[in-house]
Every structure is written in structure tokens, then in C-alpha cells.
């Protein structure tokens, strides 16, 4: 190896042609050709692919813990019977992260942001805090967490908040919540075009 460095040639990734063996075709495939069967299933997957693409228009990041929208956040209680106000669970194990924000809005007109939270047992729904500063909005759905004997149930709640941007432009809505089982704060960001 010389000390001038090395050069690497970039090769394109391999491509794969989906060839399904007959035992993997559905039993009613009969006279149909595998290509028609694949095409049918691709059409079924198109809406799912579109949903994934649209969901990826936002981002998932770590929030700034000093954000004033998180000013109500309290540490987990350590004594049985005590409670704490915490940013809600918006990603819960294998359950989906659901945040709905419209792609566009009208300046001065409120619009609805919805987020699904996961609670139950020792986790009850509490207030939702909305903080708007210029073209940035923070939405934090809070939950009240207690320590003690709890029922083993999962409550899935759609939370809604009203957000208003005063002037036209490209705005950002950030929903802050918790990811379980890690118990970490996460932030979901969505872009809104304000006309």
C-alpha cells in the first residue's frame, strides 16, 4: 500500500428481481402469471408506501430540555402515592407514533394538531401545552404518572391542540413527548406552509 492513499471504485448496489417460487404463490394463483400477482400486490402496497413517505416529511429528534414548553416536566416520583407531571408517551414499544399536522394553514386561523398518547394503569392524561413563537410551535401532551399498585391496561388517547400562526411563511410544529421503554424525550417535527 502506498502512502499516497488508496482509491476505491464505487459499484452500484446489487439489484434483485423478485421471482417467487410456486410454493410461495397464493393457492388461488391458478392460471395467473406471477407478474400479474406481483403487480396486484404492488398496487396494494402503494398506499402504505405513500403513508411512509408522507410521514418521513417530518423528523424525529431529541428536544431541548430547557424549552419553556417543557417547564411543567417533573422527575418521576420515588414514593408510593406521589405523582409527577411528565411529557406524554407518544412512542410506546411497538405501537405507532401518530402525529397529525396539516401541511398548510391560513395565517390567523387556528388549526388542529393531534397526537396519540399511550397511558393506563398509573399513567393518566393531563393538560396539553401549546407555545407559539413566530413560525415555531411546541406542543406537549402531558400525563400524570404515579407510583404504586397499577392496573395492567393500555389506554390509547388521541389528544388535540389548537395552534395559530399569525403571519404567512413556512412554520414548524414540534410535538414533544416520551419514547418507551427507554423513557427518553423525543421531538417530532412537521412543516406547515402558512398562507
Q: What percent of the residues sit in helical stretches (DSSP H or I)?
A: 10-25%
Mean pLDDT: 78
Element string (H = helix, E = strand): HEEEEEEEEEEE
Given the helix and strand composition, which structural class is it? mainly beta
Task: Describe what this molecule looks like in 3D.
This protein has a domain at 59-194. It contains one helix and eleven strands, in the order αβββββββββββ. It has one helix spanning 34-55, and strands at residues 59-61, 83-87, 89-92, 99-100, 104-105, 111-119, 123-133, 136-146, 155-163, 169-180, 184-194. The strands form two sheets. Strands 1, 2, 3, 5, 7, 8, 10 and 11 form an eight-stranded mixed β-sheet that branches. Strands 4-6-9 form a three-stranded antiparallel β-sheet, with no helix packed on it. Strand 10 and strand 11 form a beta hairpin. It is elongated.
Put the structure in a nutshell:
By secondary structure, the protein is mainly beta. The chain contains one helix and eleven strands. Strands 1, 2, 3, 5, 7, 8, 10 and 11 form an eight-stranded mixed sheet that branches.
Considering the chains and any ligands shown, give keywords for the structure.
mainly beta, 195 residues, 8-stranded mixed sheet, 11 strands, disordered N terminus
Give the SSE layout.
Layout: H1 34-55, E1 59-61, E2 83-87, E3 89-92, E4 99-100, E5 104-105, E6 111-119, E7 123-133, E8 136-146, E9 155-163, E10 169-180, E11 184-194
Parallel strand pairs: 3-10, 5-11, 8-10
Antiparallel strand pairs: 1-11, 2-8, 4-6, 6-9, 7-8, 10-11
Amino acid at each position: 500500500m502506498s502512502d499516497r492513499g488508496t482509491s476505491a471504485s464505487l459499484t452500484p448496489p446489487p439489484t434483485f428481481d423478485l421471482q417467487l417460487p410456486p410454493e410461495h404463490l397464493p393457492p388461488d394463483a391458478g392460471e395467473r402469471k406471477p407478474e400479474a400477482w406481483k403487480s396486484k400486490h404492488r398496487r396494494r402496497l402503494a398506499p402504505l408506501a405513500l403513508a411512509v413517505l408522507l410521514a418521513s416529511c417530518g423528523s424525529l429528534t431529541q428536544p431541548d430540555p430547557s424549552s419553556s414548553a417543557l417547564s411543567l416536566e417533573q422527575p418521576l416520583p420515588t414514593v408510593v402515592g406521589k405523582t409527577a407531571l411528565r411529557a406524554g408517551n407518544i412512542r410506546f414499544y411497538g405501537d405507532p407514533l401518530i402525529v397529525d399536522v396539516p401541511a398548510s394553514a391560513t395565517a390567523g386561523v387556528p388549526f388542529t394538531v393531534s397526537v396519540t398518547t399511550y397511558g393506563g394503569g398509573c399513567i393518566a392524561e393531563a393538560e396539553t401545552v401549546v407555545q407559539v413563537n413566530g413560525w415555531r410551535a411546541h406542543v406537549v401532551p402531558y400525563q400524570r404518572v404515579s407510583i404504586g399498585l397499577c392496573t395492567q391496561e393500555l389506554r390509547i388517547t388521541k389528544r388535540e391542540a389548537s395552534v395559530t400562526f399569525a403571519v404567512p411563511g413556512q412554520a414548524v410544529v414540534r410535538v414533544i413527548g416520551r419514547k418507551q421503554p427507554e423513557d427518553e424525550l423525543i421531538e417530532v417535527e412537521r412543516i406547515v406552509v402558512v398562507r
